[in-house]
Amino acid sequence: MTPEQRRKNRNTAIALVILVIAVIAWTFWRGGSLGS
Amino acid sequence: MSSVTADHVPASHGHDDHDHKPQGWRRWLFATNHKDIGTMYLIFSFCMLLEGGVLALLLRTELFSPGLQFFQPELFNQFTTMHGLIMIFGAIMPAFVGFANWMIPLQIGASDMAFARMNNFSFWLLPIGAILFTVSFFVPGGANAAGWTMYAPLSLQMGPGMDFNIFAVHILGASSIMGAINIIVTVLNMRAPGMTLMKMPLFCWTWLITAYLLLAIMPVLAAAVTMLLTDRHFGTAFFNAAAGGDPVLYQHVFWFFGHPEVYVMILPAFGIVSAVVPAFSRKPLFGYASMVYATAAIAILSFLVWAHHMFATGMPVTGQLYFMYATMLISIPTGVKVFNWVATMWRGSLTFETPMLFAIGFIFVFTIGGFTGLILAVAPIDIAVHDTYYVIAHFHYVMVAGSLFGMYAGAYYWLPKWTGRMYDEKLGKWHFWSSMISFNITFFPMHFLGLAGMPRRYADYAAQFTDFNEIATIGAFWFGLSQLIFLYLALKAWNGRGEPAPAKPWEGATGLEWSVPSPAPFHTFVTPPVVK
Description:
Helix content of chain A: over 70%
Distance between the termini of chain A: 50 Å
Strand content of chain A: under 5%
Largest interface: A-B, 21 and 30 residues
Oligomer: heterodimer
Radius of gyration of chain B: 23 Å
Largest sheet of chain B: 2 strands, antiparallel
Structural class of chain B: mainly alpha
Strand content of chain B: under 5%
């Protein structure tokens, strides 16, 4: 795997991790607001 | 499917020096090779299938007769709960990740998965989750008995077994998220030159879409069970009605995960069947592009229908109407798929080797499960059969005859590539017919039990349900024993016994995986092939 390929893979993965964190945050936020 | 041919296929460099592999336990503990990790996933998931299967047989043993014979209701409920959780998170999901690990790099011409070490970590989280599930039976109060859905308030009142359960779900969810990221990055960034997205085998497409589904839903489950945990131990009141929380909110959050999860467990099977049917029909897949769009449509719609699991909670009529019609919409892209498989077989040069038998069996029984799903989508009917054996029958037609038969189709199809040996065709056919007949004997009577009003998750039942329960129990033991045929065939091939397999054992098979020798060398596509 070339360094450029690694960089591309890492950047894609970071974007996906941000998506995961956003979904967790959204669930807590909705859970909190609807529950109260 | 697009027919892919490689211009130049330097599969393994042609001599053994480039086929180094670690030896002994290090090979497996520190595995970073996608084939080794795929193998470990498949072995793990089969072990969990056996564990979940034993729990199912214990349930069926108790249900053979009315009254309590062997287990108290508390233990029976632990068995039902853990059967579901182990089968979903331990058997079906990891098995499909095993298929993905083995086949996606081979099908797109990549040398390995994008993140090999993360791949190793994803796998080794699984046994930890499995241990947490299993040992929870032995903590005070026993395992989670609130059902695999872990509904509040029951889950808030369980003993420490529930905490084991929550941590297991966290760990298995983290494993799934890492696996999904790995698959998405591999498919998006590591395809061989010329392998455009619309040339990819459908298995890669279905897994790409499944991986996005996983990324969108596993964090929701993780957050939901975390809220359960904080409600249980840290004084929050998300779902605790006594403290101002809302138990129905848990159901909304859970099913926002839970319904797409059904498609996580079935879309990869669609991909496998879309590979097997054309191969044994000796025709390209009918409507490749429509299959891709149908898969995407199913995935999108799966997010919009979650509350059809909650008709009995007392939702407004407008809500019921919306969720009823939205659910029915899913039958359109699903119907496109079934039509395309049948159209692929139409006027094909069909042969009925074991993978094809399982694929046709899948189409037949999965469609029955789909139809009962449509019936359950009708709100007034759902309220009548909610939490009855009709629901059990429906989702076992989807999960066992759907996911499991799809996996068997894939396992027999690719076993020669994995092991370098052909399986015994006669025994394979025995496995199929024995499974198909016993599956229907087990689960078809449950439709009648459900329509007659037998509730799920009870250790006892009224005497009028006895006959169908006896039939179901006999079928269940028959089905369980039938799976030993597969175990025997897989172990035989794994041990290098049986006829040597050529690189392409199936005349009609297409795709890059058949361009490498059987068994696939430890390293493949070190130099990417050029796809025409």
